[in-house]
Amino acid sequence: MESLSEIAKACGFDACGVVPVDILSRERERLEQWVERGFHAGMNYMANNMEKRENPALLVEGARSVIVTLTNYYTPKLQLEGVPVVARYAYGKDYHRVVKDRLFKLYACLEETIGRKIMGRVFVDSAPVFEHEWARRAGLGWVGRNSLLINPRLGSYCFIGVIISDFEPSTYSLPEKRNFCGQCNRCVEACPTGALSAYEVNANLCISYNTIERKGEIPSEIKKKMGVRFFGCDACQDICPWNRKAVAHHIDEFSPNEWLMWMSREDWLSLDEETFRERFKNSPLLRPGLEQIKRNVK
Ligand code: SF4
Ligand code: SF4
To answer: Is 125 designated active site?
Structure first.
């Protein structure tokens, strides 16, 4: 039988590992403390479904393993100088759909390989799952001071996709035990708003949260520090030495939207709803909607 990593590679993933299900009590405790301090800002969903987040068997009955995949989305291409800037993850089509389709493919390939139906579910950043910890346990990297998963070969510009199921492999992956941030503190120093500390992000201060998830006005102290960013922020990834060797992805769906690459501030502010929907069909920018995008650009 081909190894899981080989099958995952054939399905388009850049890395893959598998771990037995477990109860993640320590992670739940940390998350609860984070929520208690109000660091989740308006993301109330982070305070919900703690039991399910802690115990994957409550998400998938009879679950035996957690398969974790990484999909590289790095591109060296940049927007035209001087135009409003979006985070790289939003250059192309919405990753939720793209990664999910690949996970379904992997799921079907596994069923074919083992010769039986697998009972499980796929998850891409849309359910109460401790993706980073599962990825670490699956040997795919460590969680850096920027609170993101860092893979030593790929860096941090990766989407995490998960399959929780009754699949039982012949061997499990070995966890990444070390954190290779060492004495580095660059991401903490580079964060324009001081949102990072001790491997945690305070969403109230984070430009990503403020430009993508926050409803209503963005606080003036954040506005002053956003610079040219209007959708997400890559400052704590761009500075990370582990991203120096990042290689370009080969996924057509993530190719940069041509409008995004050159649209000026004036272009954005004069955009009408119909044109926005036409130009940004399937883009993550559709989620907050044009009104919120214009608020950010302003
Ligand atoms: S995304 Fe930007 S604002 Fe948020 S923690 Fe990273 S550097 Fe700071
Ligand atoms: S910039 Fe340095 S401290 Fe921050 S995640 Fe990268 S290696 Fe770790």
So the answer is: yes
